[in-house]
UniProtKB/TrEMBL annotation:
This is Cyclin-like domain-containing protein. InterPro entries: Cyclin, Cyclin-like_dom, Cyclin-like_sf, Cyclin_N. Belongs to the cyclin family. PANTHER family: CYCLINS. It comes from the Eukaryota. Transmembrane segments: none annotated. Residues 50-136 form the Cyclin-like domain. Keywords: Cyclin. Gene3D superfamilies: Cyclin-like (1.10.472.10). The lineage of its organism: Eukaryota, Metazoa, Chordata, Craniata, Vertebrata. The keyword Repeat does not apply.
């Protein structure tokens, strides 16, 4: 009965997943944007997602919060034309919204703390306005179906067939691999069900478990995921994880971080936050085919400092 309920839940989420995918045309425009162009490039987006991973770790947020924040960010960037100087506020806004949706109220960091720890050049008022814009443009659809949704369901289905596999199929490892993939905009184009199954089958292959492979194949048939589609994304996932595990790759630390600063530094951070003024409206455009400009209340923002890179290095 448990397995039946899980398969039913799996099918229901599968039917809803397309509603929460970023617009592929918008993602393609980001991918085609060069570093010298005025818009957001893929490299710029990926770096910001790594910053979100560092902040998620620092505040002790769950993987679900990080994955939802990335989903909100990609859906917004694929919908609206924005400038790089606004990306910090947008990404922090997405993280704050995600935390309020997922985490217990007592565990959600204040807007002030997010700005202070992220060393961002905008105010609480700016962030509040940005969150309002993000919420309205995404029609307040926050509880998205993501690859993590499917990863948890696949894992639960595997356990429902044999309970002794809990230590073999490591969910924490699968979640860490998913976070690594989400740091690349390419994987925002993948269907969540397919991306999660790609990660699962990759891990099953490494474990050399024929029983688990049979369960994964049963799930694949149940969702009617084609073999060519699965193999394509499995190959891309494999390349990503190989590069990510290499010593040359600079990656966010997925452990909870501790930030230690001197009293003088803390005082400077505190005062610098209050020195940032509210800034005027900036018109921005959406990615729609009509190319009409929408006037939005955007705060004028500068890029965050290199603090998060130091954070990732444990400094």
């Amino acid at each position: 009965m448990e397995a039946f309920k899980l398969m039913k839940e799996l099918k229901a989420n599968f039917e809803q997943e397309m509603k929460y995918l970023p617009r592929e045309s918008g993602l393609s425009l980001i991918e085609s944007t060069t570093e010298v162009s005025p818009g957001i490039s893929a490299k710029c987006r990926d770096a910001k997602v790594e910053d979100l991973w560092s902040l998620t770790s620092f505040f002790g947020y769950s993987t679900q919060t990080f994955v939802l924040a990335v989903n909100l960010l990609d859906r917004f960037l694929a919908l609206m034309k924005v400038q790089p100087k606004h990306l910090a506020c947008i990404s922090i806004g997405c993280l704050h919204i995600a935390a309020k949706v997922v985490e217990a109220e007592c565990d959600v960091a204040s807007a002030h703390e997010l700005i202070r720890i992220g060393q961002c050049k905008f105010t609480v008022s700016d962030l509040s306005r940005m969150e309002k814009i993000i919420s309205e443009k995404l029609n307040f659809q926050f509880k998205a179906v993501t690859a993590l949704t499917f990863l948890h369901l696949y894992h639960a289905i595997a356990l429902s067939h044999t309970s002794h596999r809990k230590e073999i199929l490591n969910l924490d490892k699968l979640e860490a691999q998913l976070k690594a993939c989400l740091c690349r905009i390419l994987f925002s184009k993948a269907k969540p069900s397919v991306l999660a199954l790609s990660l699962l089958t990759q891990e099953i292959e490494a474990l050399q478990s024929s029983d688990l492979l049979e369960i994964a194949q049963r799930v694949q048939r149940h969702l009617r995921i084609s073999e060519p589609e699965l193999q394509r994304w499995r190959g891309l996932v494999g390349q990503c994880l190989m590069q990510y595990s290499s010593p040359e790759c600079s990656k966010p630390d997925h452990r909870k971080l501790v930030w230690i600063v001197s009293r003088r530094t803390a005082q400077n951070l505190h005062s610098s936050y209050y020195s940032v003024p509210d800034l005027p409206t900036i018109p921005e455009a959406s990615w729609d085919e009509s190319e009409r400009w929408s006037s939005l209340s955007w705060p004028r923002l500068s890029s965050p400092s290199g603090f998060l890179s130091a954070l990732r290095d444990g400094q």
